[in-house]
Amino acid sequence: MATFPLPESRTDPDGSAVVRVLGYNIRSMRDDRDALARVILACAPDLVLVQEAPRFFRWRKHAARLAARTGLVLLGGGAPAAGPLLLCSLRATVERTEDVLLPRTPGLHQRGFATAVVRIGRARVGLLSCHLSLAAAERYAQAGLLLERLAALDVPYAIAGGDINERPGGRAFRLLAGKLQDCWATAPWGGEFTSTAAAPHQRIDAIFATPGIEVLGCGVPTGLRGLFGQDLRTATDHLPVLAALRVPAS
């Protein structure tokens, strides 16, 4: 486990932007909401790729409260994306957003993508939050659709992340890692395993980046000021993934 400090957010003289990206399955905020807010605040993210955001009764109100408590802004997703949600800090200027519902297999949950294009300084980057299927065949098809959707954003750089529901050796995970940078594998930092929060033993949540983005570090956050093990265990049933990425000016 790497112990070097994860870089802080900044804009470099060449116009590139160092951004902190957080991927987090929050289990519909059914657990300790105070702990959840503290974890997100301690990670100091610029961009948050959420899975299992509230999507039923008063879902907008719950998502807005989470954003307000963590000093972030709602970007897109939630119920219209079947659960994935995007949050951002005031560093980001929103260019466009789109929520995408995926083809549904009868008897299985509806899945979707929350997508956006934002600018941070002179860096322009696409975003996608996903929560892939529990069924292997559908999950593999959704991984292919994820790659297609990133290409359709028509931006030079993009970041995708979420609950893959599969370990790195699985077909869907390997499809994504074959086309994108698996940020943990590229520059491991912090912890590796994301599930379960109480007894982590597998990596099924990940952040991916297109070629050209420099991965400075990525993993389950540890040793951050204000981040406590008890909060990580009680906020939700997954551990978060935090990445520091340098996105070139474009």
UniProtKB/TrEMBL annotation:
InterPro entries of this UniProt entry?
A: Endo/exonu/phosph_ase_sf, Endo/exonuclease/phosphatase
UniProt keyword terms in alphabetical order:
Endonuclease, Hydrolase, Nuclease
> Which GO MF terms are attached to this record?
endonuclease activity
Q: Could you tell me which Pfam families the record lists for this protein?
A: Exo_endo_phos
Q: Could you say which residues form the signal peptide?
A: none
All copies of domain Endonuclease/exonuclease/phosphatase, residue ranges: 24-238
> Is Nuclease there in the keyword field?
yes
Keyword tRNA processing assigned = no
Under which name does UniProt file this protein?
Endonuclease/exonuclease/phosphatase family protein
The organism is: Streptomyces hebeiensis
